[in-house]
# Entry
Amino acid sequence: MNLEIILFIVLALVAVVSSVAMITRPHPVISAVFLILNFFALSGLYLLLNAQFIAVVQVIVYAGAIMVLFLFVLMLLNTNKEDNIFKQNKALKIFAIAIAVLIFAQVAFLIFFSSPSDALNSQVAESVQSGTIQQIGTKLYTDYILPFEAAGFLLLAATIGALVLSKKKFE
Amino acid sequence: MSILEIIIITFVKILFIITAMLLTVSYSVYFERRISAWIQTRLGPNRVGWEGILQPFADVFKLLLKEDIVPEKSNKPLHTLAPFIALFVAFSTYAVIPMGPEVTIFGYKVNLVVADVNIGILYVLALTSLGVYGITFAGWSSGSKYSLLGGVRASAQMISYEVSMGFSIAGVVMMASSLSPVAIVNSQYGWMWNAIVQPIGFITFVISAFAETNRLPFDLPEAEPELVGGYHTEYSSMKFASFFLAEYANMIIASAMIVTLYLGGWQVPYIDKLGLGETLTTLIQVGAFFAKIGALIFFFIWVRWSIPRFRYDQLMNIGWKVMFPLSLLNVVWVAVVLMIFN
Amino acid sequence: MTSIPLEYYLILSAFMFSVGVTGVLIRRNAIVVFMCIELMLNSANLTLVAFSSFLGNPIGQVFVFFVMTVAAAEAAVGLAIIIAIFRNKLSVNIDEINIFKW
# Structure
């Protein structure tokens, strides 16, 4: 057992437990807290994968901006907790869990029987290089400049859309 | 250097930083009280020790002895977690701030920074964006309407000002062409301080820093006349002290960030041309770093006791309609400067 | 890096994705449903980063960057829609938002 495996197990456990806790807690704010925990575990996993830039951006964008927005709306609307997640509509719940298990089984089947790692022959040095901000920045501003501009435009459109939608009256 | 030596050196650095932070935080509380008293021609705390110099210890002792009251309607785990988040975020930001140049102590080459991370600025941004959680959780979990209002205000305010803060930092990063704080300080050699090269960015960053640390004139989340105590209304004893310490630690971090990004960090203009010894030069540089931070802390306190609080809509208007365009303008300005001089 | 097989990351990601699907189907609060979608997006991100890192190719991480941009835009617009619905119906329960059924 080396340090990496221990770290992976701990982070994966946090991710699994927090994601399950997120969908089973009745109160939406507590769900949000568990989702934030999940994002942190993911950020740690990205660090293990040598993707340092994505790890930091994960914290800044997801934990620092998107989830604060969610919490802000939750506190603004002050919605009550769903006491009856498990009581009402039993059939739907069983159906939902069945579907989820089916999806998981399907993906797991694919992963184990196509053994994706056979196709890989990567060196560690290469993967350390690929996660640096220089590498990603170079890619973003050369090969992917058009999607990058499109993403910027999308953000602008989203900002204006959110502003218009949350206005009290349409004049 | 072997791994053991690196671990020991890092450990010593962390120990030094934490001790220095705790002392400066408690003494900045003392200085805040003395300076506010001086501004208002009062006396201020002057009984415990010489001129009240032991007052911080008396305060901590008093808070430790108080009963820890947790409201019945609160969400207890979150109510306990919130002050820890606030303190953790405030103290761990300091890891990437360089205090001095590379020095040689007992034959070891030591960088006077705990962790020279090449994405240090992003690390600081990530941590400051987490700081809002301490306040938001505190506000929501207390189960009190004043706390909730404080928490809602804090989250809106901090998200808004983070935008202009990020864009101000973008200007600095463009100048240094690096995200490492060490490289940013090194790029400000001589009089090439970012405060002089990009004054608009400096002003927007300082104002955003005031808003991010919830200091007056932007202390809406805890405005006493309207919200009792804001997000920490329902806190007592050491949990309250944690918020209090976190607030002052944030103020020191903000000062250290302003110094690192805009006021040349530990650089003293052209001191290496004077021909002083290496040890003396280093000592002066480290001293200059702390002197700059001290001056900024005094500025923070001075502003707090001189300027009244903004109204909430004014705060949002300034954030989105003034600071945000100005910080964008600063990015354009830096780009133009870089194009002309490179 | 080499000590943890790629499959572990993929299984973890698949598990999180199925949890997200379950959440979307069983929760009734529109905001929580939204958060479950964010969870699914994140599990997809984990797969992308894992492959990118194991192949030594940054393109996967560039793609994750775009996914995050889209997620941010989606969160802003989606939450604005939820607030607008709350103004009209005073509820964010998706069972009560059924006016299009008629």
User: Anything to note?
Assistant: Chain C touches chain A through 72 residues (CB under 8 Å). Residues 89 and 97 of chain C are 8 Å apart (CA to CA). Chain C is about 75% helix and 0% strand. The first helix of chain C runs from residue 6 to 26.
